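Support request, please re-run this one:
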Amino acid sequence: MTTHLNEKAVILFSGGLDSTTVLAIARKEGYACYCLSFQYGQKQTVELAKARQIATENQVAKHLVLNLDLGKIGGSALTDTMEVPKDRDLEGQDDEIPITYVPARNTIFLAHAVAWAEVLEATEIFIGVNAVDYSGYPDCRPEFLEAFANMANIGTRAGVDGKDAFSIQAPLLKMSKAEIIKTGIALGVDYTKTHSCYDPVGEQACGRCDACILRRRGFLEAGIPDPTDYIEK
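Re-run finished. Output below.
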C-alpha cells in the first residue's frame, strides 16, 4: 500500500459502511483526512450523526458539514414524500435506476469536494462508490468519475495552473460489499458505529430497503456476523 504521509485528502463522508471503509483506507495510506458531509434534505439524520461521531473518534484533520436543500428539488424517496421501496429483488437490476436515486447528488457532492480541495491545496478526493453493488445509480460508475475528474481539471484555477491534477479516488469501485467489509475489518473498522439504512426508525435499520439488503448480504457473504440493529430480523 502506497504511503502519502500527511498529504491532504478530502473524503466524502456519510457515516455509512462504504465511506467509513474509505476513510480507514485513506488513513492507512497516511493521508491527512478532511471529511466532508452534507445535510442535504435527507429524511433521516442518523447517518449524519454517525458521521460526526466517527470523524471525532478517528481524529480527522477536519470534519466539515455543509447544508444543502436538495429536498426542495425533490425527485427521490430519500428527500421527497414518496415511500422508500422495500424487499426489492436486486438481482439483475443494474439497468434500473431506483427512486432512492437523488438527482445529481454525487455530481453536487464532488463539486463541493473539489472546491474545498482547491482551498486546501489538496489533489486527492476519496468517494465510497462501487460499481458492483451500486443499486443502479448512474453516478457510481467509473465513466462518471473519470468524466468528473476531467471537468474539475479544466474548470478550476488549480487545474488550469497545472501544478497538480485532481484525482478522484474510488478504492471500493470494483469490490463487492463482502470484499468491502473484509477490507474494513482488516483495517479495524467498527461497523456497529456505521449506518446504511434509507428508512430507519430511530437508530434501528429497517432491514428491508436496498441499502439494508446489500449490507445484510455483504456480511453474510463475508462470513462475518452482522452487528446491525435491524427492526426486521
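The chain has one domain: 8-189. DSSP finds seven helices and five strands in the chain.
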